Hints:
The chain is α+β, with helices and mostly antiparallel strands and 150 residues long. The protein has three helices and nine strands. The chain has one domain (6-149).
Amino acid sequence: MIFFDLKDYFRTEAKRLAKQNPVINKTAVRNATSETKKVHIPNWETELSLFTESDINKPAWKASYNVLSTDDFIIYKALDPALILRTRKIVIKRSGNKIRWILIYNHTKNKLYETTEKLSYFPDSLYLIEKMQRVRLLGTDRYRISGAFN
C-alpha cells in the first residue's frame, strides 16, 4: 500500500513558497513568552521540516497504519499501541485533487522525555506547530509556532 506522500507534498510546497516569497506573520511562543514578527522565510524546506519528517511512506510501515478514505478525507492512524511509531495520526482534507488542510499528530516517549506534536497546515493561509516536551528532571515546556500568510 502506498500512502499519501507527505514528503513530496511539502517539498513541492516549499519550492512554491520559495518562489512566491510571501510575507508571513510569524509568532513563536515558549510557555508564556511570545514574539511576533513579519518575515520572509529564507528556507521553506527547513521551516516545514517537521511536516516532511512525519512522512509514513516507508515499506516497513505499510501494515502499520489503518487507512480510512472518503471523497473528502484520508485518515491514517497508527495501529501499534506501544507508541513505537512517532507519527500517530494524519488527517488530510481534500476537495478533488486539491489539499484543503493537513493535521499531523506525533508522539515520542522514552525513559528520559516525552514529546507530543500537533502540526496543522492550511495552504496559503496558516501553518501551526504545537509542541509539548516533558523532560525528566527538567520539567515541561510548551511551544507554539504559527505562520499566517498575508
